[in-house]
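Aim 2 progress update. The chain analyzed this quarter is reproduced below.
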Amino acid sequence: MTSDLLAPLNPCQRDAVRQVDGPLLILAGAGSGKTRTVTHRVAWLIRERGVAPWQILAVTFTNKAAKEMKERVEHLVGRKNCKGIVLSTFHSLGVRVLKRDIERLGYKKNFSIYSTADQVGLVRQIVREVNTDSKKYDAESIIWRISGAKNKLIPPTQFTPNPTDDVDMMAALVYPRYQSALKAFNAIDFDDIIMLTAELLQHHAPVLKHWQERFSYIMVDEYQDTNPVQYRLVQLLAGERQNLCVVGDDDQSIYGWRGA
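Predicted structure tokens:
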């Protein structure tokens, strides 16, 4: 007898929903039902495999998509059966991890997250400190270079500027000072949310163990848009179990400009 969770799906989608152990890559075009497959897979884990909701992590790229995914799963299995499940963006997940253990990195738990305006103000201040001709440099361009480095897991000590690019050279001067200033203010920026989360998991075994034990099954929607630091984060969480399902369309990346 076919489960009602499988009834609306085509044969390939059904196979993906039932294949829950080990790694799984789903590639399909826009409008082919990728997200529906993910939501039915989550529901299948809960209802047919008896997996506790809190052991499931599903990640997507926007708060709207995460909210819609949660609503779909609740519709399939009931809200009371979704208690503890984490359906979120990468950044919401990162904040969750950091709030628990950021003190291991030398920050206080009541850290703040800098807005773009905060970043611009701080970078302008640092540029004035290191260069008398500060008007020559655009703060947003420098922040862009620093952001690109963070999305590739490149810390200040390993940032290698292009010697023919004045902005790159200035970014190399600003980056370490910028990070030190953020830490002094007990603040992080948007890119730090993921970079510091990956750092926590990579260098603090008890933290990694906690989250690997928490999430037995991991799914990532719109996987084609992941950048190197997000990819590293997913691999760390999946661990040896590798109960990891990634869903994407390699012809549809919209975040290439962010390092995806």
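Residues 11-103+203-258 form a domain with the Rossmann fold fold (CATH 3.40.50.300). The longest strand covers residues 56-60. These observations will guide the mutagenesis experiments scheduled for the next reporting period.
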